[in-house]
């Protein structure tokens, strides 16, 4: 290699370096967002980004679509290793895990108190992102629950939509037996490795794995006990179609194998994606547990946006979330009708979309119903260990189907959970 | 002076040697030795996420009172106690069969049996998951030939979930072990078999008394490798159970538990490091036991 080639390579290298610098400079102002679910959060974030860039063209967005578990794992790895430059500017965190991140990694997320007007949001959403009086996130969607049911199957079994209102779970199981006898369809899909169903039932009676002070509450938890008893009755009645994992569970109703789905409102998009089932679905309030304080409203999932403290575009990211998620009422109407996202910005509910009838659900005003139920969701303390206790509960669900005594199961759950919470 | 000169030369060679190995020594120190000691150090701390404080042997005490750890340990032991012998025997028999020159399409069979272990871990787990779902191909086939009346909950019943994991890893790794045996079989002198045949030793006895003893070092090697692999089992259970190790923690392995402690639960790095040292100790213990059991008594 002679001197000339070395020189020319050096020049080429310097040129490449310079152009790299230049391109970074041109993209200063790119806000990176991590979230999951291309049909829901990702699509909604793209809509929000489009609205913001319409006003401020110099800001660009890079919305990265991961699976939820991957978002959580990448976030946790980056935070614990301290390599904050790999972190995005905005990240979506599920509400159950919010306190875990805020308390385990102090200083990792930007404090937003005073920068965003929290009085406009549903209070339970603000509370779960507050640590020592400081609020850290921007509340996003709610997981208010409903009982989606196939009108056609229930009609074949002799039930009208009126019969689906104001149910108890015992009545639900009776109907389920009728439905199976008359139509051969199962009443619901149930994943034995997922405690989501238990959480819905428990919260509908104002209970959680923890009391208001955040102490573990398992053995004397009437709501949890009633929820476990109900799942046991369902398992023993055999009105469920077993599913292993999320995809199989979703498949139980998209394939038309089951007559009902009890879950969060965010499933609406998936239900409506089956165009051939249009007009066949109805939505009712979820059945009620047979304990004191039980109601027809509950919550499953729901998540919120957080800005990372180390972000280079921190102010831009905060301004973006504030402009769209905390102020834009029209945005909430659009994501409601297109994606079925019920936001937690209270003012959004006065918008036109919320009072419209939905043809897919036979002209029912489903959104009005969901927003009415949202106001009735009991506020509970998710604490920092929901994932741990959830795992303990999940581990004992199969024994319920084998007829285990619910009090014994509660004891076992408590002992496993205590081992995990340290 | 002469002595001094040799010393200098020796030094020169030593230095060169060190220079040659320096890059790998450096990399191994950074990416292997440092993490090993760092995790040992970590295992003396406990706390939430980065809010850690010194806990002494607190994490070791926690192991004893943690039913999930005990369960994960039991599962891991069940997996390798049941799976490794099945796989080794199967691989040995397949190798013996496929070493027969009179067999047609021998190359095809060897490739077909070896192929699973080059398949992507994730791809085959996903495939197994769909094949073994409640109305998957396997249940339908078993019902069609009348072996079972109602579908088996391969992924929803604790016992069958364990069976499925064992099936999955056996399917994947048997071919891999078989290749070792096939290679070793080439090295056995054919005249030993001829002599045995002339003496009228039946085929099964030739297998038991000639093939197996001659393969002893390879059998030992594959057993250790398989045991270590099974003790560290993670990918299959993670992908088959969406990272949960369900149902009822029946497929939770130690590695999966470490993952959950670090990434799914309130991050508990110190405790996770302690559990990982349990794996280290187990691997060391079992390797020692196997070497000891198979030592040359002669």
Automatic annotation (TrEMBL), chain A:
Keyword flag Protein transport: no
Keyword Hydrolase: no
Subcellular location: Periplasm
CDD domains registered for this protein in UniProt: PBP2_TMBP_like
Record field: transmembrane: none
Signal peptide span: 1-28
GO CC term, one of those recorded: periplasmic space
Pfam families attached to this UniProt entry: SBP_bac_8
Alphabetized UniProt keyword annotations: Periplasm, Signal
PANTHER family associated with the record: ARABINOSE-BINDING PROTEIN-RELATED, SUGAR BINDING SECRETED PROTEIN
Similarity field: Belongs to the bacterial solute-binding protein 1 family.
Descriptive protein name: Lactose/L-arabinose transport system substrate-binding protein
Source organism of the structure: Shinella fusca
Lineage, broadest ranks: Bacteria, Pseudomonadati, Pseudomonadota, Alphaproteobacteria, Hyphomicrobiales
UniProtKB/TrEMBL annotation, chain B:
Keywords: Cell membrane, Membrane, Transmembrane, Transmembrane helix, Transport
Domain of life, per lineage: Bacteria
Similarity comment: family membership: Belongs to the binding-protein-dependent transport system permease family.
Transmembrane segments: 17-37, 77-98, 105-125, 163-184, 214-234, 269-293
Subcellular location: Cell membrane
Annotated protein name in UniProt: Lactose/L-arabinose transport system permease protein
Membrane topology (UniProt): Multi-pass membrane protein
Ranges where the ABC transmembrane type-1 domain occurs: 73-290
GO biological process, one term: transmembrane transport
Record's GO cellular component terms: plasma membrane
UniProt KW Transmembrane helix keyword: yes
